[in-house]
Amino acid sequence: VLALTSVTGHFAAQRVRELISKPFVSIASAVGEELRRRKVQLAAFLGTKKTLNGGFLEEPLHDDFGINFVRPS
After folding, report:
1. pTM of the shown model
2. Residues in Cβ contact with 41 at an 8 Å cutoff, skipping those fewer than 6 apart
3. Is-contact 24 16, C-beta < 8 A?
4. 36, 35, 14, 37: which is closest to 24 by C-alpha?
5. How does pLDDT run along the chain (73 residues), one tens digit per residue?
6. 3-class DSSP assignment, residue 55
7. Phi and psi for 56 in degrees, rounded to 5?
């Protein structure tokens, strides 16, 4: 299994998935599983503007886990 633990590295996550044949674990999937386990439906995250606007966290949390994402101003 390949686990991508670097937040910034997730900008290349889709390309990595395309290049490997092994199971892939991303931060979004690990966070999503834990939030679902805890029955969380709305989550706020802190990070750099680039990271929070990148979509690689917000989109999978919403699309795969039904969790809404709050971005701080």
Report:
1. 0.74
2. 66, 67, 68
3. yes
4. 14
5. 888 878 788 788 889 889 999 988 888 888 999 999 999 999 998 888 888 888 878 888 999 999 998 888 7
6. coil
7. -75, -10
pLDDT at residue number 50: 82
- Locus of tokens 């809404």: 68
pLDDT of residue 42: 95
Residue 57 CB burial class (10 angstroms; 0-12, 13-18, ≥19) = buried
Length of the chain (residues): 73
29, two tokens = 């999937």
Query: With contact defined as beta carbons under 8 Å apart, do 42 and 68 qualify?
Result: yes
Q: Which residue has the tokens 């679902």?
A: 36
